[in-house]
């Protein structure tokens, strides 16, 4: 369904107005921030800065998670994993809302490109053996029931994504997922840009 341009303009007017406040930049990268995830988005440059900032923060969190030494605790490892997820989610949602709703076609196109970068990072994370080993290494023995259940679900999902396959297979999976992202974006773009209306 295509939003009337007046509705899309109103939505992004509100977003832009929110971005003019005192929460403009650094708070958007802070996982503890309560500022709306779209705060600070006023144009393509600000969108790219915020999404890339989130991706950079996700990479830093990922490095901390995989480079930790010594005995891993469930709390430390799951907090590190959650830090990565928070940043990816914020980057993905920001790119998604802009690519779907922004009234400017060029900005929507820029958001499509950023969304592909986020999806690529997500795919890499789902096939990252170091992350899988870190999560598997903490073990569920003696952990609270909810933690043990969460670990069971996450590790199962990693295996279904193909983390335990050989390097060539993981590379093939990565390529297929990239292709799926592009096809899904093309589908969304056709729906979004379509001129058909229902009365």
Strand content: under 5%
What's the helix count? 7
Name the helicity range.
over 70%
Catalogue the unreliable spans: 1-28
Structural class: mainly alpha
What is the radius of gyration?
19 Å
Query: What is the makeup of the main sheet?
Result: none
What is the straight-line distance between the termini? 12 Å
Gross morphology: globular
Secondary structure layout plus pairing:
Elements: H1 5-19, H2 44-67, H3 74-101, H4 105-126, H5 129-138, H6 145-161, H7 167-193
Helix pairs in contact: 2-3, 2-4, 3-4, 3-5, 4-7
Polypeptide structure, described:
With 199 residues, the chain is an all-alpha fold. It has helices spanning 5-19, 44-67, 74-101, 105-126, 129-138, 145-161, 167-193. Helix 3 runs antiparallel to helix 4 (105-126), helix 3 (74-101) packs across helix 5 and helix 4 (105-126) runs antiparallel to helix 7 (167-193). The chain is globular.
